[in-house]
Specification:
The chain has five helices and five strands, in the order E-E-E-E-E-H-H-H-H-H. The chain is of the alpha+beta class and about 160 residues long. Helix 1 runs antiparallel to helix 2 and helix 2 crosses helix 4. The termini are far apart.
Length: about 160
C-alpha cells in the first residue's frame, strides 16, 4: 500500500479495479489492448465462367475453388465422379438396345435423370434383374432405391417395381 492512496475509509479504488466498469474482453498475454480475433469480411470469389441450364432452374459457376452447381430443386444431386463424355442419354439407349442392361442402369444413375432411370428399369427383362443389381455396386444401391420409390409413388402397378 502507498500512503498517498489511503483515505479515512481505506485505500482508494483504482479506476481499472472499479466494479462499475467490468472488462469481459479476453486479454492476450503481453497485449496492451483486448482483441478477440473476430473479423467480419465478405469473401470475394473470382469466377471465370457462369452457365445457366435451358430450364433456368440450375446454374453453375467455375472459379478458382472449383465447379459450383446450384439448383432450385431440392432433389437434384450432381455426382461428377464417374461422369465422362461417353456417358450420355444416347449411350444409355444404345446399351439398352444391345442388351447391356447393367451398363445402361449405371450410366442413367450417373446422369441422375429420373425419366432415363425409369426407362432403363422398365425396359430391363425380368430374367436380367439379378445380374443388373449385382453389377451396380454398393455405392449406387441407395440412389436406385430412391428412384424405385419415386416410381412407385404414382404407379398403380406396385408389383411391377
Amino acid at each position: 500500500l502507498h500512503s498517498k492512496n489511503l483515505t479515512d475509509g481505506g485505500p482508494m479504488d483504482d479506476e481499472a479495479d472499479s466494479a462499475d466498469e467490468i472488462d469481459n474482453a479476453p486479454h492476450l498475454p503481453g497485449a496492451r489492448r483486448a482483441d478477440d480475433g473476430s473479423r467480419r469480411s465478405r469473401v470475394e470469389v473470382l469466377t471465370m465462367q457462369v452457365a445457366f441450364s435451358p430450364t433456368g432452374r440450375e446454374w453453375s459457376a467455375v472459379s478458382g475453388e472449383g465447379l459450383h452447381v446450384y439448383s432450385l430443386d431440392e432433389d437434384m444431386i450432381f455426382d461428377p465422379l464417374a461422369l465422362t463424355e461417353a456417358v450420355t442419354p444416347s449411350a444409355v439407349h444404345k446399351n439398352l438396345k444391345s442388351g447391356k442392361f447393367g451398363a445402361a442402369l449405371l450410366m442413367s444413375l450417373h446422369l441422375n435423370e429420373f425419366g432415363l432411370v425409369k426407362a432403363v428399369i422398365e425396359d430391363t427383362p425380368y430374367e436380367s434383374i439379378a445380374n443388373v443389381v449385382r453389377s451396380i455396386g454398393h455405392e449406387h444401391i441407395s440412389q436406385l432405391i430412391q428412384f424405385l420409390s419415386k416410381c412407385m409413388e404414382d404407379s398403380p402397378h406396385l408389383e411391377y417395381y
